[in-house]
């Protein structure tokens, strides 16, 4: 079975509301000129496939998506700078910079507010900060958590690998590659059993393809018609190995076809393409149409883990990573991907659509940067958690006695 790709032009809706006139005009121009992925001078462009859901979003929602991308970007940059310059900083991260449009576009299509029994759930990976921010977690508390502070999101003993916030349906990071898929399927099964219209989304990398969980979860999701959306972020590498080492497909989405699951390959640098694919998948799942698979082609700007090879104040890592025992990503590859930056693509599209002008776009970035700096400053003032805190909440009725601490 062939999977769909977004290279087909989306139909232009003939009965648009007046508010979407200018966007429709842009779509028509894009279709006429056959706009393709291109970089012209300083400005990075989307590939012209705008789709038909995004153009009808309100200006507020579009600006919100731009703001979310920036929140993730500045969270990553600020944390990388902390690691590089502040010897007292204990936090660590698998940086998500470069992939912001994926989490943002997917979560923008989800129900993120409301009682737990009604919101959609997102299951994350070992690279969780972008998913968490896009799903709506409290950023200062996340910063505190990542630095092992007692007032952090999870009391300071979860940190990056076990970050979670059920209040917004962010079920959590997962340090193991693969198991989040069957667990997310369990939630999707519960939604079906309860007759709820909630959906479960699971994010995973190209490295999940070679796990048994990937295949068994897709198989069961189809057999049971679960409201599950698998978002595969193909950033080309797992740790330091190219995905061709462990996957025979160029498009990993081809694997979903083997299970009879509809799939889409999208440009993961363009938030609106991601949104369009996610909206289709969410609508299908809510309506009882079963699972979907989205492969987002994307790239991370930092090395696999932490900030080796990065320079304070500069986006991306181009230098030596002592952990890279198998292969290096060529600097020219990193820089080429940075020419199609999700922040630029989102901003340029919103400017083209007259949703923002360049001045307002720059002001928003300044506001977001200040908000993130304030979050890190607040977190750094919080009390540290103690080793004993790790033994709390092990059993429902109390802590485990801390024998080893006397
Ligand atoms: C079961 C398991 N095996 C190995 C690892 C070590 N590990 C951590 S991240 C990673 C690579 C993941 O690559 P990918 O899924 O492409 O995600 P990305 O890091 O590119 O976001 C590996 C092998 C692990 N965490 N869990
Ligand atoms: Mg990867």
List the helices and strands and how they pair.
Elements: E1 4-5, H1 21-33, E2 39-40, E3 43-44, H2 59-85, H3 100-107, E4 121-123, H4 129-135, H5 139-146, E5 170-172, H6 180-194, E6 200-205, H7 212-223, E7 228-234, E8 237-238, E9 241-242, H8 253-258, E10 263-267, H9 271-286, E11 292-297, H10 331-338, H11 342-352, H12 358-381
Parallel strand pairs: 1-10, 4-5, 4-6, 6-7, 7-11, 10-11
Antiparallel strand pairs: 2-3, 8-9
Residues 126-127, 175-178, 205-208, 235, 237-239, 304 line the site of thiamine diphosphate (TPP).
Task: Write a compact overview of the structure shown.
With 406 residues, the protein is α/β, with parallel strands linked by helices.
Helix content: 25-40%
What is the makeup of the main sheet?
A: 7 strands, parallel
CATH topology: Rossmann fold
- Largest sheet: spatial strand order: 1-10-11-7-6-4-5
CATH H-level name... which superfamily? Thiamin diphosphate (ThDP)-binding fold, Pyr/PP domains
Catalogue the ligands.
Answer: thiamine diphosphate, magnesium ion
Shape: globular
Order of helices and strands: EHEEHHEHHEHEHEEEHEHEHHH
Q: Briefly note the structural class of the backbone.
A: alpha/beta
Mean pLDDT: 88
Note down, in words, how this protein is organized.
- With 406 residues, the chain is α/β, with parallel strands linked by helices.
- The protein has one domain: Thiamin diphosphate (ThDP)-binding fold, Pyr/PP domains (Rossmann fold, 3-Layer(aba) Sandwich), CATH 3.40.50.
- Helix content is 38%, strand content 10%.
- It contains twelve helices and eleven strands.
- The chain has helices spanning 21-33, 59-85, 100-107, 129-135, 139-146, 180-194, 212-223, 253-258, 271-286, 331-338, 342-352, 358-381; strands spanning 4-5, 39-40, 43-44, 121-123, 170-172, 200-205, 228-234, 237-238, 241-242, 263-267, 292-297.
- The strands form three sheets. A seven-stranded parallel β-sheet has the order 1-10-11-7-6-4-5, with helices on both faces. A two-stranded antiparallel sheet has the order 2-3.
- Helix 2 packs across helix 12.
- The chain binds thiamine diphosphate (TPP) and magnesium ion.
- Magnesium ion binds next to strand 8.
């Amino acid at each position: 079975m062939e999977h769909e790709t977004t290279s087909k032009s989306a139909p232009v809706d003939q009965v648009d509301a007046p508010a979407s006139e200018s966007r429709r005009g842009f779509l028509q121009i894009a279709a006429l000129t056959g706009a393709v992925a291109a970089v012209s001078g300083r400005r990075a462009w989307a590939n012209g496939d705008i789709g038909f859901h995004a153009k009808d979003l309100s200006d507020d929602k579009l600006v919100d998506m731009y703001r979310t991308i920036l929140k993730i970007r500045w969270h990553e940059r600020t944390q990388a700078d902390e690691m590089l310059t502040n010897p007292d900083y204990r936090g660590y991260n698998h940086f998500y910079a470069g992939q912001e449009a994926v989490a943002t576009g997917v979560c923008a299509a989800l129900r993120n507010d409301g009682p737990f029994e009604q919101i959609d759930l997102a299951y994350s990976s070992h690279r969780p900060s972008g998913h968490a921010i896009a799903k709506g977690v409290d950023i200062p508390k996340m910063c505190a958590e990542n630095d092992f502070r007692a007032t952090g999101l999870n009391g300071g003993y979860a940190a990056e690998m076990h970050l979670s916030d059920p209040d917004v349906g962010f079920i959590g990071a997962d340090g193991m590659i693969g198991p989040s898929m069957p667990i997310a399927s369990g939630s999707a099964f519960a939604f079906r059993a309860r007759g709820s219209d909630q959906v479960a989304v699971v994010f995973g990398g190209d490295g999940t393809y070679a796990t048994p969980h990937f295949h068994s979860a897709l198989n069961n999701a189809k057999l049971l018609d679960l409201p599950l959306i698998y978002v595969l972020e193909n950033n080309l590498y797992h740790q330091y190995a190219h995905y061709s080492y462990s996957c025979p497909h160029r498009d990993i989405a081809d694997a979903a076809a083997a299970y009879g699951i509809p799939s889409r390959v999208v440009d993961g640098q363009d938030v609106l393409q991601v949104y369009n694919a996610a909206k289709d998948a969410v609508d299908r799942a809510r309506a009882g149409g079963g699972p979907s698979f989205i492969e987002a082609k994307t790239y991370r700007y930092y090395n696999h883990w932490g900030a080796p090879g990065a320079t304070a104040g500069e986006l991306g890592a181009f230098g030596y990573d002592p952990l890279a025992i198998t292969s290096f990503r060529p600097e020219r590859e990193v820089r080429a991907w940075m020419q199609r930056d999700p922040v630029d693509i989102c901003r340029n599209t919103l400017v083209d659509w007259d949703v923002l002008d360049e001045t307002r776009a720059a002001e928003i970035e300044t506001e977001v940067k200040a908000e993130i700096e304030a979050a890190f400053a607040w977190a750094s003032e919080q009390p540290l958690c103690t080793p004993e805190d790790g033994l709390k909440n092990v059993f429902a009725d109390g802590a485990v006695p801390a024998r080893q601490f006397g």
